[in-house]
């Protein structure tokens, strides 16, 4: 796993030294879900009791919070909950976030992890700059993980993330 997170948007020569350590992913996931479920349950969390993960807890928390925020935002007209599932199986942490929102066009999916990319439907919401998913992809990459997206317009989006457990 890389030891530094650098980005062309930081000052010249700028990088952030990662503080990698073992942490309880389950606690981080619950912490990320909690603000969304304050008044009414928007996110259903299905997770193993204790998943120990090695990496940057701060970056993983940012990753999960951003993906959940997007799922809730783009599901605002749906009566169904956003679902987050996480399980440790065969040395792999499998994370799935599924919403029942507007979905993403098949034409847009290859570009959604590019900085500043916003689909036509996202532009009509007038929020964000198109950086969230590119940052999420970078966080997954520096943790040597994989992220994939499947979506059906009008039915929702599913994001899957895989990390090796050390």
From TrEMBL:
- Which UniProt keywords are present, listed alphabetically? Kinase, Phosphoprotein, Transferase, Two-component regulatory system
Please provide the Gene Ontology terms (biological process) for this protein. cellular response to phosphate starvation
A single Gene Ontology CC term = plasma membrane
GO MF term (any one) = phosphoprotein phosphatase activity
Reactions catalysed, as given in the entry: ATP + protein L-histidine = ADP + protein N-phospho-L-histidine
Q: What class of enzyme is it?
A: transferase
| EC number(s) stated in the UniProt entry for this protein | 2.7.13.3
User: Which parts of the sequence belong to the Histidine kinase domain?
Assistant: 37-166
Q: What is an example of a Pfam family matching this protein? A: HATPase_c
Q: Which SMART domains match?
A: HATPase_c (SM00387)
Cross-referenced InterPro entries = BphY/WalK/GraS-like (IPR050351), HATPase_C_sf (IPR036890), HATPase_dom (IPR003594), His_kinase_dom (IPR005467), Sig_transdc_His_kin-like_C (IPR004358)
User: Which Gene3D superfamilies does this chain map to?
Assistant: Histidine kinase-like ATPase, C-terminal domain
**Protein name listed in UniProt:** histidine kinase
